[in-house]
Amino acid sequence: MSKFVLVIGAGQAGLATGYHLRKAGLPFQIVDAAGRVSDSWRNRYASLTLFTPRQFSALPGLLHTGNRELYPSRDEFADYLQSYVAHFDLPIRLDSRIVRLVKEATGGFEAQLQNGERIRATHVVIATGAFQKPIIPSTASQFAPDVVQFTGDSYRDPSQVPAGPVLVVGDGATGRDIAAELSAGHTTFLSVGKPRKLFPERILGKSAWWWLHWSGLMQAPKESRLGRYMQKADPFPDRDRNLDSLARNGVRIMPRLMSAAGSIAQFSDGSATEVVSVVWAVGFRDDSSWVEIAGAGGSNGSFVHTEGVSEIPNLFFVGRPWQRNRASALIMGAGPDAAAIVKRIVCLVTAPWP
């Protein structure tokens, strides 16, 4: 079989992979289920801005325009991804959802599209990202049917949310953003879990990301002592989103949600409140059900890999959180992680095919 790389997913991870495959001179195609590049970004909540400023929110070979110290919006970054495809003329097939990936007896792969078509490849890079299916706790079923429920995936803006008290569950960056904007027009409760570590947005006039990048902290290996500490702490920048600031702006901070009964939310300290809507912002999980290859996925549905390399020969990943380091979950990590994976593929294609 002629060497051919199939890249699944046309987000930042897939495009960075395409960039490096093009540089390496390998034949490849990027396939995505969406109708246009960057729809996964445009379909998120409207007020979303990236974690990192423009100087750290670019893919290899193409810088962002605009103030490098400021944060790109959701739509700006989506436009950037579209311009990236055009700039490098990357081969992308859209409206092409892959519903089944299998390993062939010859050692290659066959991907089946939703329309029944099949694509064969010698190497596959799964770059679908870590935001596949929103996690909805079992507590959701305890609310009455007339309590309107959203996820971090289905929530777009406050106009969707009916009048009355709203509970946001989950105090990561998404939950805090949503609670902050809802508080302008709704009585808003934010249910928090474990204590979160936030770092200052700027240090000595420089973005905290500048310090983290140039100090080498963002590149600390996953299994290093520093890497393990950063995984446990999981800090994110404080852009006026600490709990004290949220409280000053009207968000009512509540402890962990324990249960619900009808329209009543009950918390770990024994308190309770009535709500008319709930936004679940407790994270996402993988969907590996379409990869029908034994050993590719774990029992919990997550993908199994070591620094993006599967135990399945010629199967790889880019865009996994902590794939190699903290940067892996961010735009700044897509290029280096893709480069490392493509380097491995280049080494493999020089070997005889079975």
TrEMBL record:
Superkingdom is Bacteria
Sorted alphabetically, which keywords does the UniProt record give?
A: Oxidoreductase
Q: What is the lineage of its organism?
A: Bacteria, Pseudomonadati, Pseudomonadota, Alphaproteobacteria, Hyphomicrobiales
Protein name per its UniProtKB record = NAD(P)/FAD-dependent oxidoreductase
